[in-house]
Amino acid sequence: MSRLVRHLLALLFAFVLALSAGSARAQEITIAPPSAGASEAAPVLPPVLPVEGGPALTLPNDVPVLPPGQVTIPRIPADYATHDFGWLKLAYPESAKERVEPILKSAESVRAELTAALGQRVLDHVELRIVPSTVEMNRLAPVGAPPPAYASGVAYPRLRLTLISMLAPRGGEATNLEQVFRHELLHLALEDAVRGQHVPAWFNEGLAVLYADENGLDRQRALFNATISGKLLPLAELDHGFPHDNFEVNIAYAESVDFVHFLRRRSDELRFAMMIARVREGQPFERALAQAYGSDVRKLEFQWRSDLERRYSIIPVLAGGGLIWVAVIAALGWGYVKKRRRAKAILAKWAEEEAIEDALLAQRAAQRAEESAPDLSKLPATARPSTKIEHAGSWHTLH
Prior knowledge:
A hairpin with a 3-residue loop joins strand 3 (80-84) and strand 4 (88-93). It is built from twelve helices and nine strands. The protein has helices spanning 2-19, 97-118, 134-139, 177-193, 201-212, 216-229, 246-263, 269-280, 285-293, 297-312, 314-319, 322-372, and strands at residues 44-48, 69-72, 80-84, 88-93, 126-131, 153-156, 161-165, 387-391, 394-398. The radius of gyration is 29 Å and the shape is elongated. By secondary structure, the protein is an alpha/beta fold. Helix 1 (2-19) packs parallel to helix 12, helix 5 crosses helix 7 (246-263) and helix 8 (269-280) runs antiparallel to helix 9.
């Protein structure tokens, strides 16, 4: 009987983790065709040189490969508001000021955090475009290098440019702007910190997701399932890119984030900064990591896997106190409900604002129509329209 109860608890825990999967992501695979509206007059930047060895294999999925030669960036729409921090130039629709306000308040602190985490001065110049939807994000992206088809955010480190959509590409849910902002800014900051030197895809994307604190429950579920089923992927397979299979790509992201977190444990923050500095100086990533940590990536991966098995082993899940797991499941469920409520509140607010704007437009149209109508009282008597009435079977004209 006790064995059955433990199995039921484990299944319930896995179910809640699956239910709580987030929908807004910055980790995508396919690339959409260029938008027809992206060919408007725009500044032309100097040629972008390809990274030796093939940039398509070494960049995260939300960092599109730029076409060779000159790159054209569409101009910011005239009805966008702008804010200049000196190092950050931010553009967004006037109507989105309230949603963008948290980024305006946190931008300086985010830059300071990234400088401290990477141990280098970063982000001297960044342009950020916050747009209403992924359609607009595609239109304002560099010509020939559109965002991934399912991305809420995209970064172009060589151009110092990033774009974020206020709506998720699927489901129409509101994007967590602060989260995606931190994710994409990390890609730009890492490019600065290592001076464009190669780092593995798992390191680049894992660090971005970790810093943005994205999809925590998703990662736990993926790591839990992969650990107990023996389906963890070797990090060497994730050096130049992630798999395209939906099941494996979730494991790849979860592993990347967790291993980067393993490297950035409190006691190893100095080693992490030393590794970044060595890569910046031109050392290959694996050699820089080995010299900073005193152990090569294979030994570190073995240590991390051992730690992972201790944390996600099915034994502590099944043998743990029932009341504790009930509390954990309740907390996870409450977090999911709060997230859904927040998204619905934002969408309801947008609908209310659109209704108010439509009413104002209708009122202004009625006023213009009234102003353009002729004043009959000022017309001469001969020009006024006559009025006829019927009396005793005959029609009579009133003068």
